[in-house]
Every structure is written in C-alpha cells, then in structure tokens.
Amino acid sequence: MSEHSGTRERPTDAPATTEAVPAATPDASATTAGPRPEPLRFFGTTWLRHDGGYAARRAAAATAALLAAVAGALVLRFAFQGLTIAAVGSFVSVLTVVMFAICGALAFRRTWQGYVKRPEPDEPDALRGLLAIGFVGSLLAYFVRCLVEAPGEGLRRAEYEEAMARYERRAGRRTGNPAKKSRG
C-alpha cells in the first residue's frame, strides 16, 4: 500500500492495466475506477485519446530519433575512417561494415518486435552487446514507428482494452446489494 494515497503499488515490470486501482484522490467521483492506461515514454497517457499535444510529441520524437540516428551514423563513419587511416586492410574493413549492418538489422528487428509484443521476462539477453553496436537500427525503428503511432501504442492499447473489458465484466456481476438478496 502506498502511504499517501491508500492504493496498492504494482511491481515496475507488471503492466499497469492488469488490476483495478482505486482512485488516488479523496474525491473518488473526480476520477474513474478501473484499469489505468500505462504511460509511454515521451507520451504519458496522451496516446489513449490522442490529446495533449500527441501529434506534436510524435513529430518531435520522430525528428529526434532520426537526428540521433544520423549522428550515430556519423560517429560510426568516423570510427571507420580511423580504421582506414590505420591501414588495417580490406578484409577488416569489409568485416566491420558487415558487422555494423548485421548488428543494426538485429537491433531494428528486436526493437520493432518490442512494439508488437512484450518480451518474455525470463528470456536471456545474450545479444545485448550486439544490439548496443546496432544502436542506429534501434533509433531507425523508433523513427519509423513514430511515423505510424507512438512506439508501443498498439500493444498498450490492446492490453488496456482487454483490461477494460475484464473490469466491466467483473463490475457487471457485482451490481446490487448482496445483503438484500432473498435466501429462498
């Protein structure tokens, strides 16, 4: 229980839409009971109704991701130029380019899949180093996803709608005063 609001706290790895959370304010009529939408980084809960500057946030996030990918590609280019200056040979140069391409593709794929389904919590992250090398791929995946929707919005929306349907089914069964039931 939280000391200030009297609500149950949830673990950070659990989705916010799995349980009904009582209203945190003293006036319970000011907020609705039921599952709360899970906030997205840079978007909060504006993805739910596409309000509060949602379109501007998407445009800003897409622009920032693209600029970061370009800056990352420039850094990789400077690193490659350092290899060329060191005269390491054509084999190492080709191997480096292939490695960055493969790591970028793996990072793009892993990031894109993270927007479609939640990763398994017990899944080993043995490729963490390769994915860090392919950071440009992750940034490009974020950029492309921002052109369609807020990254992770589709997954969070499906989870939220499922949680709302479960909540409404449970709330529908609990109507009426059970003390007034006839025991016939």
Structure characteristics:
0% strand, 184 residues, elongated, mainly alpha, 54% helix
Describe this structure in words.
By secondary structure, the protein is mainly alpha-helical. Helices cover about 55% and strands about 0% of the residues. It is built from 5 helices and no strands. It has helices spanning about 55-85, 90-115, 130-135, 135-150, 155-175. Helix 1 (about 55-85) runs antiparallel to helix 4.
Structural class: mainly alpha
Number of strands: 0
Radius of gyration: 24 Å
Provide mean pLDDT, rounded.
Answer: 79
Number of helices: 5
Mass-distribution shape: elongated
Extract low-pLDDT stretches. Answer: 1-14, 17-30
Give a short account of the largest sheet. none
Query: Hey, roughly how much beta strand do the residues contain?
Result: under 5%
Helix content: 40-55%
Distance between the amino and carboxyl termini? 40 Å
Q: Encode the helix/strand succession as letters.
A: HHHHH
Compose a concise summary of this entry.
The protein has 184 residues and is mainly alpha-helical. Helices cover 54% and strands 0% of the residues.
Topology:
Elements: H1 54-85, H2 90-116, H3 128-133, H4 135-148, H5 153-173
Helix pairs in contact: 1-4, 2-4
